[in-house]
Amino acid sequence: MTTHRRIRPFNTRETYPEQDLDNDLCQAVTARGTLVFLRGQVSQDLETRESRHLADPAAQARLTMQNIKTLLEEAGGSMEHICRVVIYLTDIRHRGAVYREIGKWIRGVHPCSTGIVVSALARPEWLVEVEVTAVIPD
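Predicted structure:
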């Protein structure tokens, strides 16, 4: 019996065909039913995997946070269960727009947060990626 639940499993062959990868991943994992690790989320439609809001960091952050909300709900939780947020930006100049948008989604939650500026994300059109860890109470 496994103590982990995998939410929205996928294989990179279908998700990133241009990268010639074959990795089994998922969007979120719940451990022991209460600890939830979300894969880094981006401005990508969860159903079609289409990238959205090209060149608009605030809109990318908005869809990213909507994806996080959707996945937490699928895991049986909510935004208030977020404990840790890691925000990856490809350009420090996007920080204000991205952080203002993320702040709307986590108002009153007070998670630990880390921001990192990176040279690139997995696809060149992505400007922001957000990784979340949550704990759903028993």
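Summary: The longest strand covers residues 4-11.
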